[in-house]
Amino acid sequence: MEATKQSLFRTVFGMMINPAGTLKNALLTKWYFAIAISALAFGLFFGQTGLDLYKTGQKGLDFVLISGIAGIAYGLLVIPLIGFLIWTVLKLSKADRKMKETISSFCLSYSGALVYGVMGIFFSLALGWKTSIAFGVTGVLWAIGPMMIAIRELTGGKNALSVPIATVVGGIVLISWSVFGNL
Question: pTM (2 decimals)?
Answer without folding.
Answer: 0.86
